[in-house]
Structure formats: C-alpha cells, structure tokens
Amino acid sequence: MNYYNYFTEVEEYFVRRRGKHLYVSPLDWSLIATWRDSGVPLNVALRGIDIAMDSYYSRPRRRTERPGTLFYCHDAVMAEYARHLDAHVGEHEPESDSGGAQPGKSSDGDGPDKESILRFLNSRIGEIDCLRSKLQGRETAVEAIERVAGRLREIVRCLENEALVETESVERDLGILEGILIAGLRTALPEEKPAEWEQEARKDLKLYKKRLPKETYEKILENFLRTKVHRHFNIGELSLFHF
Questions:
Q1: Sign of the dihedral defined by the CA atoms of residues 16, 22, 24, 27, in that order
Q2: Taking each helix axis from N to C terminus, what angle separates 3-18 and 26-37, rounded to the nearest 10 degrees?
Q3: Tens-place pLDDT, residues 38-67
Q4: Is 0.85 surpassed by the pTM of this model?
Q5: Taking the C-alpha atoms of 222, 224, 229 and 235 in order, what is their torsion angle to the nearest 10 degrees?
Q6: With left for phi above 0 and alpha for psi between -120 and 50, is residue 205 left, alpha or beta?
Q7: I need a labelling partner for 143 at 20 to 30 A (CA). Which of 37, 110, 137, 209 fits?
C-alpha cells in the first residue's frame, strides 16, 4: 500500500470516529508518516485509533469536547503495534515442550483456530469479489468494497505469518471494515429501500421503545438495518460471530 492510501485511510477513520469533520494538521500527517515508516500495518493503526476513541467516549465529558489531534491516539496505536510484534516473536522457531503457544491456535484457547479464520476471511473476500461485477456504475459502492477486500487480503497475509491468533483483535479489525462495507453498499440501494426497512423496524420495535434506553434502541435499529443490507446483497457479515 502506498503512502497516500495509508494516510487517507488513517485520516478518514479518525475523522469518522471523532464524529465531526476535522482538517488533519501537518503534524498529524508527520505522525502518520512515522507510524508507516516504523512498520505499523494499516489494520493495526486503525485498531489503535478504534481503541483510543472507545476509551474516550466511555468517559464522562462535555458534549462539545472532541480530540483535536491524531496524537490523542498515538499511545494506543503503539500499544497495539507492540502486541502485533509480540504475536510474531519466535514464529519461525520450533516449539519447545515448555508450554509455548502452538501455531494456528487462538489467543483465548476457545476461539476458532487460524485455519478456520482464514477460510472464513477468504470466503468473505470471494463474496465481495463476486459482488463487484454486480455493482458496475455504482462507483462509491465499488470503491468501498474494493477497499474492504484489499484490507481483508492484508489481514489474511498478516495472519498467515502469525503463530498465535488474537481473535479479539481480528474481530475489531472486521468491525472497522464492516462499517466501511455497509456505508458503501447503502449508496447502491434502491432509493426507497432504507425508508421501507426503517419503517418495518420501528413498527416491530414500537412496543419496546419506551422500555429501552435510547442508545440501546438505536443500536438495535442499526443492527436490523445492517442485516437487511447484507441480505439484500447476499453477502455475509464481517464478524467471527457469523461463521
């Protein structure tokens, strides 16, 4: 991936998680260059941003407060990069009998193994590749699914070289790509579909609206609409919970 694409992916994701447009400063640009020159993979950088922003939003704050610089995410990005490097330590060395990590195993011991995850990811890549031909003329949607497919291939290449698969990290990476995928596919929907689906969802949830916290209600609604998008385009969700 060239420098410009790396920069724009990081910038766009930070602005999206921040929730309000922000012009990235020359200092932020230099920080992104430092990450890339240091060997931080794109998916690791985005994962660090995701973790930093999750932490930020979990704390009490004034509604008008938002991080004004990408430097806010630097520590989290570096911590994720350190975890990434640790996952590769000794990956080409033979396993000893001292209880070290076994190649292909998940980090939690109970999750899917590496081969299963790779098959799942390659299956999703195949679905996206098939979908591309059906979306000719829908430039925004095609651009989005090409970005997602490209990043999924990067994750596959990365996992192929890891002895220990951290399923939590993979799931977070997939959550980021899921957001990009859904946003792109929504631009290719027939104009009336989103309104129809939302009306259907609100009707079904009418009895529960007063009983649910607003945030929970909106999350359920969002998940319902996302599922509708996946079914409309006949493409599986990007989550290890949907093997």
A1: negative
A2: 120
A3: 888 899 999 999 999 999 888 876 555 667
A4: no
A5: 110
A6: alpha
A7: 37
